[in-house]
Amino acid sequence: MSALTSQAFAQEPAGQDGEREARQGRAAEVIIVTATRREEDPRDIAGSVSAFGGEALADLGAQSLADYIQRAPGVVFNNYQPGVSHVVVRGIATSSGNVQGQATTGYFLNEIPLTEPGWTIAVPDIDAFDLNRVEVLRGPQGSLFGSASMGGAVNYVANTADASGFEAALETTLSQTRNANLGYTARAMVNLPIVEHRFAARAVLLYRDDPGYIENVGTGGANDLTVGGGRLSLVFTPSADTTLSWMSMFQTIDSADNAYQIPSVGDLQRNTATPEFTDTEVVIHSARLDHDFGWASFTALAAYHEKSQDWRFDYTPIRALYNADLDLNLTNPLYINSGGESEGTSLELRLASPSGQRFEWLVGAMVFDTEKQLYEQIGSVGAAGQFDQSSLYGPGAGAVIAPDGEIFNAFYSTVSGRETALFGEATFHLTPQWRLTAGGRLFRTEVDTVSTQVGFSTYPGDPIIQQASNTEEGFSPTLSLSYTPNENLMVYGLISEGFRFGTPNVPGLSAHPIPSGSSSDKLTNYEIGVRSNWLNGDLQLDATVFYVDWTDIQLRLQTPDFFNYATNGGAASSRGIELSASWRPTDQLDLSSSVTFQEARLEEPLFILWAGTAPEGARLPGSSDWSITNTATYRFYAPFDPVFSASHVHLSEGISDLNSAIPGATPRLQGGYDLVDLRLTGTFGNADISLFGTNIFDERGVTRTVSEVNGIGQGIVRPRTIGITARWRY
């Protein structure tokens, strides 16, 4: 089966005919998920869950989100620059990039929340090597996962140490992308049982070098990307009922230049006066205690995470305006430095009754504290000297305005947030066939913002410091009813809600009044789903119909004098159907397909300051009406057990921002492309060798379009890439 159905077939060494027949008839990899905070088969959950298992990710050659996430029904990946490329689920977004407030998709690692309030720092893109699975939850997950998970959630689950035996794995890839140099990856894992069945350690190291394929004709560079890091897991089992776990993760993603092309410059080209680098770092430490009391299982999960991101944008095309307005003579490139860092600590405690009982329950409490430092700076080499010579400022001004010699205007923010919650779910098996589940999350969110403005705009006075805050309380419920007449059919109905942090506004320097901030949107999801098995389980057919009602949408608007602020306004809906099928017509052939049709639209006209009005019925940005995936896998009866797979992804055309929906505006489009990948794998003892080609027809699939100061920028899918991967496991 394919990754779409959470199944992947392992490869074994060649053998005799009888061994081969047994191997070809082996069961598929069964993926168990924790989307309900219990271990369950995703097809038994009254909700929409896709799971990409570790074997499936390896068979895909997956490294980052771009390699697999869009294969889940109802999901679009808006790839643009490292660390700020967003997953949009069921069309719930107001932009294909960062918004003023918290994102609408939540990200988690082994249930640890990684999506802080306010402007997003570093959307986590965890390397896929030695992951146990990636769970993609569609629809709001507010009751169990908390804030941000309005459209859905992505939960990475890393493998943990196993004291039952020694394991090791190595993987390396050499690849060639059109218009790029040779790329390579090196990954290693070792699992050491230190005390048999009691204590073990598991370590992962990885490094990836992806040479850039977009040439910057202005700097002579390219969007070279390197990814490095590792994970460490320690697991101690003092008794059969108690497990203590520790996990640490460190990952860096560094891009020498931005990953968008400017079509007016040329194919796979862009033109800036300075490299637009991006440096991202994510560090996570967590400790977990699991204990089985018999009558209930107890889990305590404490975590700390630190994320940082620094990037630069070329601002040189408007240098002449600064020179004229400030009486300067800047001749070096003008740039904006932007980014920041965030720290978060979380603690979750929960009790859950044993599974399989007529009445099952789960209760818990959590607190999630974050503090974030953001900055935005305008600078140019030699700026301090220019302010000394300006008739508007005069000698000595540069030492105050640009004390480092370059930065002459800056805006800094400190954002402190806290989410506290009590949550729970109760399931009552009315009969062996009928199951009713009700639950919810009682939450409180608090945000405090302090902003500081320094530079030429405040000279010769003191820095301008302003404060704002926002506090909210609410309840996010969920209710489902499922009917399972037999092991081959399940039908369910679900109602669920999501929420996110509000965003306070600081008054800023605008001459126009602005609201105090935004509050959480209100989003309710209604869905009916069918999960069915046919032909003795060889054929799986699933269908989900959904309707999402979204009101008081959080918006990022702009005053007439170009200051951004957050507010609420407008209403939207998303309605559609998700279909998926997985069929094994023979022991050698697997076929899978998914088709999603959705309409994510405004339900009333939306006025956007300084732009116009997006009319009722306008589509929401960052998604597509149609998304289709197809995969075929064939296993040959031949030496070395060759396996050939072909996959296809289709994404219909969409828009990248709400301004594109305004009549008369030039739309910034994305989507409207088809991608085809091929892979051939052979098994040689404990090693697999794969030859692969991705985007073999070399499509220029646009993943996001943005107006940059140097022209219209397009994020695109990686051009045609061919390569070879060697995997060894002991």
List keywords for this structure.
6 helices, 5-stranded mixed β-sheet, mainly beta, 730 residues, 22-stranded antiparallel β-barrel
Q: Return residue spans where pLDDT drops below 50 for at least 5 consecutive residues.
A: 1-27
Shape: globular
Number of helices: 6
Largest sheet: 22 strands, antiparallel, barrel
The class by helix and strand makeup works out as mainly beta
Q: Give the number of DSSP strands.
A: 42
Quote the average pLDDT.
91
Estimate percent helicity. Answer: under 10%
Rg calc? 26 Å
Strand content: over 45%
Q: What does it look like?
A:
With 730 residues, the protein is mainly β. The protein has six helices and 42 strands. The strands form nine sheets. The protein has a 22-stranded antiparallel barrel. A hairpin with a 4-residue loop joins strand 16 (278-292) and strand 17. The longest helix has 8 residues, at 17-24. The radius of gyration is 26 Å and the shape is globular. The relative contact order is 0.14.
